[in-house]
Amino acid sequence: MGEVARTNGTSALTLAEGDPVALRAQIEQTRNELGDTVAALAIKADVKAQARERLDHTKAQALERLDVAKRQANEHRTPLIAAGAALVGLIALRIAKR
Hints:
By secondary structure, the protein is mostly helical. It has one domain (about 10-95). The chain is about 85% helix and about 0% strand. The relative contact order is 0.04. It comes from Conexibacter stalactiti.
């Protein structure tokens, strides 16, 4: 019989011939690895959770950019007010010419 290669480099045949304590430890380790693999696959398969995570990330980025824009607007308040007043004045002149 040939040995069956396992992902961690040991073989199933070698494990079957080992002492019971080592075999139990290897079985426990394999169960843990399998549990981790199943959990990782479950996370990848959960499309709703992935979409929710992307939405939360995008929302956080948008809020951060909004905060930066607000801070910049507060720092440059006078020029913004002047530009707004000029724009209102131009609109008023345009309406008055009609």
